Amino acid sequence: MTRLSGGLIDHSAPVQFSFNGRPYTGCKGDTLASALLANGVQLVGRSFKYHRPRGVLSAGSEEPNALVTLHDGARKEPNTRATVTELYDGLVARSQNHVGPLNRDFMAVNDLLAPFFAAGFYYKTFMWPRAFWEKLYEPLIRQAAGLGRLSLEPDPDAYDKGFLHCDLLVVGGGAAGLVAALVAGRAGAQVILADEDFQWGGRLLAESHHLDEAPAAEWVGKVIAELSGLGNVRIMPRTTVFGAYDHGIHGAVERVSDHLPNAKGMVRQTLWRITAKRTVLAAGATERHIPFENNDRPGIMLAGAMRAYANRWAAAPTRSQSDPVAVFANNDDGHRTALDLLAKGIPVSAVIDPRTDAKRLGDYELITGVVDGTKGRLGVTAIRVTQNGSSHWMPCGALGVAGGWNPNVHLSSHHKSRPIWDANLLAFVPGKDLPAGMVVAGAAVGQMTTAKALRSGMDAALDSLAGLGITAKPIDLPRAEDTAVTQSAFWHVAGKGRAWVDFQNDVTVKDIALAHKENMRPVEHLKRWTTLGMATDQGKTSNISALAVMAELTGKTLPETGTTVFRPPYTGVSLSVLGGGDTGSHFRPTRFTPAHSWSAQNGATFIEVGAWLRAQYFVRPGESHWRQSVDREVLAVRGNVGLCDVTTLGKIDVQGVDAAEFLNRVYCNMMGSLAVGRVRYGLMLREDGHAYDDGTCARLAETHFVVTTTTANAALVYRNMEFARQCLWPELDVHLISTTDAWAQIAVAGPKSRELLSRIVDDFDLSNEAFPFMACAELTVCKGLRARLFRISFSGELAYEIAVPARFGNALMERLMQRGVDLGVTAYGTEALGVMRIEKGHAAGAELNGQTTAQMLSLGRMVSQKKDSIGAVMSRREGLELDKRRLVGFRPSNPAEVIAPGSHLFAAGTERTMQSDQGWITSAAYSPHVGSSIGLGFLEEGDVRLGEVVIAANPLEGREVRVEVVSPHFVDPDGDRLRD
Amino acid sequence: MLIPHPLLGLRDAQEFTYLGDASLLNRPDAASGDASNAFNDYVFLRDNPAGLHRELWYHEQGDRSWLIVTRNTVTHEVLGAELARDYILKAELPA
Amino acid sequence: MRFSGFRVIKEAFTGHKGWGPLWRDPAPKPEYDFVIIGGGGHGLATAYYLAKTFGRSRVAVLEKGWLGSGNIGRNTTIIRSNYLLPGNEPFYEFSMKLWENLEQETNFNSMVSQRGIINLIHTDAQRDAYRRRGNAMILAGADAELLSPDELRKKVPFLNYDNARFPIKGGLLQKRAGTARHDGVAWGYARGADTHGVDIIQNCEVTGMRIKSGKILGVETTRGYIAAGKVGVAVAGNSSRVMHMAGMRLPIESHVLQAFVSEGLKPVIPGVITFGAGHFYVSQSDKGGLVFGGDIDGYNSYAQRGNLPVVEDVLEGGMALMPMIGRARLLRSWGGIMDMSMDGSPIIDRTSIDGLYFNGGWCYGGFKATPASGYAFAHLLATDRSHETARAYRFDRFARGYPIDEKGVGAQPNLH
Q1: Model-level ipTM above the cut of 0.90
Q2: Alpha-carbon gap: C277 to the closest alpha carbon of chain B (Å)
Q3: Which of A82, A736, A956, C274 would suit a FRET pair with A714, their CA atoms being 20 to 30 Å apart?
Q4: Does B46 touch chain A (CB under 8 A)?
Q5: What is the pTM of this model?
């Protein structure tokens, strides 16, 4: 055990967990990483390419090494950073990316083969023999690559998403962020304060500094207590603001119950869309390491992380408390690690610092030199220290590396802004053109001391609030550490061995040198050639060091060499929470038709039609195959009467003095001349001249029309009509409203439909003379229920569609079924509807697929030449006019054969190639009326080839059918039944 | 993104359906001699600027008004929005 | 220098001393016979075939940033030839055949991985449409298979078959489709072009075109004026901006498409899968990241970044389709600028200006077209005739009424 005393953990609250099957004990307040360190565990993982043994490098979300898989079964969660995993009772963690035990990974053979695996090697080989890539090389590479494993089971947890709005969003709850939130909170602004950590305070918790005379944690506690008491402030711990999007919108994920041993009934995480008028980015800074030979061994850690483990988590970084710790620092901040460790009773063997002017800050040995080698395969045991050209090995149980700090500029560069180089700080700081409304504060903007961070947090809040017209007052800041920052331009230790720059992806200084030699010098080429910065830490610990090495090789300055672009998310976000829980059957809303419950009670099988569920067919006792049901329904309609819920068709009410003129302009055919009380079929074109929707238009009054659309295009047609009304012809006096949901509409079709309807209408003359084909009327039914009746037919039979207010749809269906028992009334679904419209030769979605024209549909003459309408001009383009494909019907020469929609059409005796392709089958069905399969389709000059036998070829399924070209009207071609 | 709806204030862009360049308001006269060329330009050709862009958004999940939004296509900054109908009717007032 | 496994081994033993630059960084010459604007995949491939196949020397590629920095450097790496329309399918099948031989052609492993693409079917109407498409593919010489639900379940058992809002009723499979390592494609063509004498000039932005009496004379650049016999523009995403220098308006809008990659995972997803009831498609990279995307954001943009609603929309689709990916994490997202054309199909054509040629309008399908686009554009530049598979990709198809509209949505770019 290397557990120390003190810290911000609760020593009295032990927490049991397991790592690689072995039980351990930590404390409440631990992370998985701190608990493992406190148990003397240094080896926690393997690197991506060379499978090098790795330990904890950092104490935060930048961690590249300590990636573990949490949980078992469906909750298995790969690639989780142990450094930010809050410990709880029963946590199960395993190391990943190794074959065999962690300490004897068979894949470590890759490390021996490392010379073959230089940067970009795979682009240069595996090309011969050609077939071996997919068969051999790639599967091997894939198996070796990747990190953790998915469970392959659906994620069983619940997720949520929510929306928040505020005046000021403060990202980061360290010194700067807390002050910013406090200033804004006291001013009464709506404030959201978010931090990825589960404790507030940021780096304040990791350092031993005092604020005023007390430990920083006390000040943090007071600030949080005050903020919690303010109704206008929302504090959100365990919340990562992962992306800055347009207009102050931020993406954030709150880990609601990840840290709870029993989260039953709770969501696991919530995705927040936070819209902020102003944002203070106070995300702190990330320490950089210093590449030197074998700098990647377990026990070699960022010096600042060592302080965090010792001060906040009371854990020594060594395997045993008596092991001494060495520190390799190129700046004074690193020396603090020695001081803090000594204060905690941990022996410090030396601080090695390459700066000749470095000063000893306490009671430790200072060596002016470098670390350029290490020993200890599974945990560092000694370091090689070179001083004035001579080297010696120094035993140690851990090494802290302090290369200086990089401001966490990430969110500031999510838009156009690029970080700029601060030559004093020797780091990139936020540049110009920040996301609108964003101000950066604290270490994130290079204000590296506690005092400066506090001040900058206050200034940022005051600035932001002033911009919103909110008056805020400065607050009394606590006295804080303000020692000079001494970052130095010592970037790496030159040497012959491998010195890691990107730990996880195993990118070394040599790889960068090779990239330089191969002219992969632009920073993006460097990244892509070597995979630098593409690991799960997104280069947080490697990018700047790599730029510095490349700058040295090219002789350019670091900013000339390039900067790196940060993209969302700041840290990895689970795919589940981004999906927001709208999965499975909740993926999209489901729309039910008014007669849904009646249908469900009467044997309906439902089918998805866009967002709707529609009855597909109704199974009656004794029917074992859907075709039996569908054939029965078709024959019932053709012989008696059938009912179909057609509410899903779009219904648009058009009213106004200019309604007729308006409709003339949106339909390609004349509509304004329609008489009151009559219905007309209408075709709409897109402005590019292609057909896109059809339906009926009924004129209920001089200034009142009802337009119907196809189910699929209901929203689109309405949108386009509003466009025409508001944007093209706003001078017309016309108003539109979609009434699709307001009216339930039922098709009553079949020779006995008039008889059936006559039993429910109130004093209404349904005779052919009084209410002929294509008549419409407003009336009442069932003793006073207002209704609209249209004598239109999709089936080809005498038919009506009756509309009643939607809430009466189910009742009307029931009533009609009761009243028609003696007439053989039968409910029918979309399948029978489809069969009958194919038998009748009516176009539907497969024919009106957006690629066809009025001419192809044999409706060319509908496009009026007497008026302009949308699409009319463009419908006369050469390509559309010369297109000779026409919608015709098809019957198989052998009635036993089945026509498959999607078959392509060929003249008999021609080759089955694209060049001789003459069209395709759009729709097909078994026709009980014809007694065989029938089809509709577009065929070159089909209208003049009736009687010809052509081939419907379906090579995809290895079938061909000889079909006769026939009229598309299989039933009642003259339309007598409709008009009867 | 947020769209400053002239009647409803700032609304999330997700409530809107985007159409494109506001030049789609200028539907040519079908009766003119050069209608087919004019329609070809109108339907198919776009300035597609990198910078300020006047464009049409439809508040489909809201009040169903068509807006002309002025937005920078490089920065996504929105400079303003007005009702298309107001714009056109105003534009046709005599001077 | 020839790349091979033997060479890699030899260099490993000799400390990698023998490797040299993959390409030169030449200074621009005052004049070239051919200037290609745009050092992305299409531009580099054009230069490569122009030099190698059509034997043209004095060729330069001008790239405003680093080569491969456009959409070739930021896409979801899918290659396929599963198109419906005769204007498209032979072209993409030609491209597929070039992909199949790309590594041997360029002596660079671009990791062309033919692990298949499955377009999922959710409705009977979709099955009919995919049957038509699959047949069109076969009739044009490509491969296609219609998968039954059972066959599909065997291939990809982890889809949400049992609790789906939209049931999965099968799929259209193209086995020869798959993915390629996008950067590797750019680098392979760049290295090949450089080897054949093409000057690839990075950090050289074209700022103007010198045009006299309807003929192009050369281009103004940030590195000075460069005279050119012929100028080919292949700057997807920026087509309108560049062609504006020649006074042309295009049937194109620029839109942003976001793409996503997860943290590295051991292999789970074979090939490419596309969700037919939402906006989601996914494959897994050789490094183990799930590479996925969805719909474009939908508004004109040159910002190379998108917004949160589309991120959510894509992942809603992803989680609805394959809820087993939920505990993986999104690692990185990015946005590219798409040339969205008015019918969803590209343009490879001469322009009204003598000597100025245009290649663009690839929507979000440009990556898979890279080899054929380069070949066809080189063919056009070298011979002044369209390549036989690219004859439909003309500017005048819009005015004349010969759109190549796979989706049937008309002249609305954000719907293609």
Answers
A1: yes
A2: 19
A3: C274
A4: no
A5: 0.97
